[in-house]
Amino acid sequence: MKNGFNEQLVKNIKENLGSYFMAVLFFTIGIAAGAFTVKALDNGQKQDLVIYLNRFFQILGNEQIKSTTILVQSLKNNFQTIFFIWLLSITIIGVPVTLFITSFRGFIVGFTISFLIQGLGWKGLLFTLVAVLPQNIIFIPCLIIISALSISFSVHSIKRKVRKGFINNVKGNMLSYTLSVGAILLIMLLGSLVEAYLSPILIKSLSAYMIVQ
Q: So where does this one cross the membrane (predicted)?
């Protein structure tokens, strides 16, 4: 079953190489923009963010972590993002909006990691490894795949409208696309579980060490 999934994924990437390239490119641009934004902050703004993080770690060390609340919020955020991409992919504005969402998610990742490392040094790198990286190992590939599928579907939809003689199984493509998005959304559930039940435990265990004196 695993080999079958891998073969299908490789086939899909080969067939939609341009869409995957665009998704990865815009996500990378978002990461770079996030990192440059951190560099553009003045020392006062960076210090304010470090103070905020210190308060967060202090509160976290004394508060009970509500994993269920984190899980629900993570699922809600991911579902809204993916549903929005899926919905707009059937319209003519699907491609630019999908690329914007992809680059914005990249921006958040780039800004977060860059600030943590620049603001907290080795502590920031450690925090990134235990708090940011685990769930994003799952979230980022899933987002790239869904974005590429959305771009491909939008492009084919535009072709169907432009080329009146273009023959394609619209219902079949829509069903296949929707099922693929649904399957990847289920995989993202694993990332939400990591974010809700694993990362908070690791963060809490490090909260006292993370405070910058």
A: 20-38, 81-101, 108-131, 137-155, 175-198
Tell me how far apart the alpha carbons of residues 115 and 102 are, in angstroms, rounded to a whole number: 20
Q: Do the beta carbons of residue 109 and residue 117 sit within 8 Å?
A: no
CA distance 181 to 106: 20
Residues 110-165 have pLDDT tens digits of 999 998 888 788 888 888 888 889 999 999 999 999 999 999 888 877 776 666 54
Assign residue 121 a region (left: φ > 0; alpha: ψ between -120 and 50; beta: otherwise): left
Domain that holds residue 147: 2-210
Other CB atoms within a 10 A radius of the CB of residue 90 amount to: 14
In total, how many domains does the chain have?
1
Distances (CA, A) of 168 to 95, 120, 142, 156, 174: 20, 54, 27, 9, 11
Return phi, psi of residue 42, to 5°.
-80, 170
Tokens 């990847």 label which residue? 184
**How distant is the alpha carbon of residue 132 from its chain centre?**
11
- Tell me how far apart the alpha carbons of residues 144 and 141 are, in angstroms, rounded to a whole number: 5
Q: What are phi and psi of 168, to 5 degrees?
A: -160, 150
